[in-house]
Amino acid sequence: MNNAPPGTVAYALRNVSKRFGPVYACHDIDLEFFHGETIGLAGENGAGKSTSMKCLAGWMVPSAGHIEVDGQPVRFGAPRDAELAGIAVIPQELDLFPELPVYENIHGNLKWPRTRTGTFDRRQVREAARNVLSLLGVSLDVNVQVKELSPANQKLVQIARAINLDARLLIMDEPTAALTELESDRLFHVINDLRAQGRTIVHITHKLDEIFDHCDRVAVLRDGELVAQGAISEFDAATLILHMVGRKVSRLYERRISVPRGPAMLQVEHLSKPGVFSDISFTLHGGEILGLAGLIGAGRSELAHALVGFDPAETGRIKVKGEPQTFLHVRQSMEKSIGYLPEERRSQGLHLPYSVSWNTSFAHLEKFVRGGFVSRRAEHEFAARSAREFGVKTASLDMEVSLLSGGNQQKVLLAKVLAGEPEIVILDEPTRGVDVGAKSEIYALIEQLVADGKAVLLISSEMEELIALADRVAVMFEGRLTAIYDKPDINQETIGSAASGQMTHVQ
Amino acid sequence: MSSSSAAVQDHSLLKQFAARPDFPALVFLLVVFVGFSLFVPSFWSLGNLVNTMRQTAPIAIVALAVNQIIIAGEIDISMGSMVAVLAFIFAGISEATGMPWLAMAITLACGGAFGSVNGVLATVLGIPAIIATLGTLMILRGALLIGAGSITLYASEATRIFGNGRIVGVPVEVWIFLGVFVYFALLASQSRYGRRVLAVGGNARAARDIGIPVNAVRFWAYVQVGLCCALAAPVFVGQVAAMTANVGAGFELKVIATVVLGGTSLSGGRGTVLAPVIGAVLLSLILNATALVRLPPTFESLILGVIILISVAFIGVRARHQERAS
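^ inputs. structure came back:
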C-alpha cells in the first residue's frame, strides 16, 4: 500500500470543468481527497456528482482543469489510466458477471497466472480472492456464482475487485441503495477498515444520515458547482440540505394532512406462500398510510406481488371492501381498484425508450378510446394534466422517459399507476434513488392520496420515510409479520428490533 | 447477510454439477441412449454408431463455434449459406487443382473472411446481429444461385477425403470434430479470450467498464464461426458426393437448435463447451433411431421441432424452479 501519512492530499480535482455543448455538467471544481478519509459527496440528481467523478476516474476527459495524483498533474485518457493510478469506481448498479464465480469476478480483467503445464492456475486466483476477502473481513465461498449472492455480498465482491487492483481511492456511488440497514452497517464496517488502511473513500449518497454517521468530510455540489465543503462537524442536516437545494427545506418531511381512519378497504387473512411468507394478516383502511417495514428479503415485495396477482399466494384470503377476491392476474386486481407501483422503476415500471405521454397512459388505454381508436389527443391531454398535477419536469411530453432524472421518472410512474384511479395503492419503495427535492414532492402526492380517502400500503426500507409518513407500520421478518405499531410507537428502535426478529408480538 | 450465507453453505460437488447449464441435456442424452439400446434393434451395432458420429460431425463442428457466439450474447444465422458457398469453393478448387489440402487452406481463408464481414457488420457498423447475418445469409445464397444455380457438382474421390476417408480407422470428419472440440475446450477453460466471452455475454456493460475490448471479443467470435463453416464444408462435400446450390439450406437453424438443446442460453453469458456436442449427438441419435424403426424421413422436421420445444420448455421450467428455490 502507500506509506503516506493520513491527512495529506492523495488526489485532487483542480478547476475541473466538463462541458456538453453550451451546458456545463460541472464547472470549476477544485476538490482535494486526503489519505485515510471518507468524504461524502452530496447533491441532488444532476448536480454534477457523477460527471466530476467520471472525470476523476478517467471515464471522461475534462474540458478544462486537471487531475492530481500525489501532487503531480496527470491526464487520464481512459479508465485504465486511472485504475493504474489507484482509482476505482464502485458503481451503483451491479457491474459483475452473474454466471461467473466470485473468484473470477474479483480477478476481473487481470492476467491469468499459469501453472507449470500451462493451464490456468485457478488455485492461485482463488487464493488471491480469499486473501482479498479476508482483508475486508468477509467470509464468502469464492466458488459460488455471483448471481446466488445477496445484493450486500455482491457489493462486497465489487469492493474486493477494486482492492485486488490495489485501489487507493474508491468512488462508491450509492453503495447502500439496495441494502437493508443491517447490511449497510456491515458495509460501513468494511469501509472504515479500508479507511484505516490509509485508503480514501468517496461516498456518493442521497442518504444524509450516512454522511453524518460515516464521513469525515463532505462536499456539496449544486448545478455543477462546488458550493460547500468542510469537516462534517461544520454541518448539520439543515445546512447540508440548504446547500444541496439552494433553498430552505423543512427537515425530512412533516405530514400536513391527517384524516380519520375510513372503512376497511383491504383485508388480508392468513396469507401464505411456502418459503416466501406465511400467515400474514392485516387490514388496510381508507384514509390511512400503512407502512410495511423489514429487511430486504423479508418477503415484503413478494407479499405485494401476491396482493396484486403477479405471483399469487397459496393459502389465505384477500378481501377488498369486505368481498373475498382471488387475484391470479394483475388485470383482476386492477379491476378491483388496486394500483401497484413496483420497486424497480427502470426494469419493472417504465418503458424507457418511449415518451412520457406514452408511459403515462398505456396502462389504461381503454380510457382514451374514441370511436374504436386510441385518441392521441385524449392521451396527450391526460398526460399533460398528470405532468402538471405530479410536477413532472420535462421539456416535452414526447421526450423519452429514459432521459428524465430518477425523481421525474418516478413521478411519471406514479402518474401511470394512478391513471386508473385506484382506491387501494401499493407503493414499493417509491423514493428509491430519488433526490431530496423530488422526495418531498412525492411525499406530498402520497399524502394527497389518503386525503382523498384512498388506502396506501407503503413498502419502504427507509425508516425516516416510514416515520414521517405512516399512520401505522407493519414489520416483516423472514416472511412473517412480527409487529404492527400505531403512530406513537413508531420509531427507529421499535421498527429496527422487529425487523431484525428480536421481538415478536402482533397487536 | 445471514440469509445468504446459509444459501452458500450447501454447495456440494453434486449440486454444482446439477446446476450446470448442460446438465438436463446430459441426462436426456443418457436416457435416450439407454432407451434406444434396449428397444431399437441394431442400434448398438458399431456401424450404426460410427454412422451417427459421422452425421453429427458437420453440425457439431459449426455448433461449437456458434455456441461461443451465443454465449457472447450475439447470434449468427448465416451458417447455411456460408457452408454452401464454402463447399462450392472447396470442391471447385480441389477439382481444378487436384489438391484437396490446398483447397482446404483457401476455403479456410474464405471462411475467415466471411466471418470477418459478419463481425464488422455487427460490431463496427452496429447492425443488430440477427439482421446483419440474415443479410449475409441471403446474399451468399443469392450469389451461389446466380453463379452455380444450374450446376450439380459431383466430387471426385480425392476431393471427398474430408467426409469419406479414414485415419487409423476413424472417419476424417470425426478427427476434425475432435480437433475443433479440443480447441474450444481449451479456449473456454484455459484462455483469457474464453473467459472474456462469458463476461461479455453475461454483462456487456460491466465487461466494458473493467476494460475488456467488447467488440474485439465479439468480432473474433464471428470469425470463428466462419472458420468452422470452412472446416465443415469439405466434410459436407465428402458426405454428399453430389450437390446443388441448395446444399445446406436450413443448416443454420439445425445448428442453433443443437446449441440450445444442449443447454446454452440464448440470452448469453451461460453455456458450456459440451452443450453443442451433447445437443448434436442427441439430435443425431434421435434421427438415427427414427430411421432404424423405419419412420419415413419426412417425419424428421416434425420430430426435431417437438424435441426442441420440449427440451427448452424443460430448461425454462427448471430455471424458474431454481429461482424460486433460491
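Chain A has 17 helices and 22 strands. The two ends of chain A are 55 Å apart (CA to CA).
thumbs up if we can close this ticket
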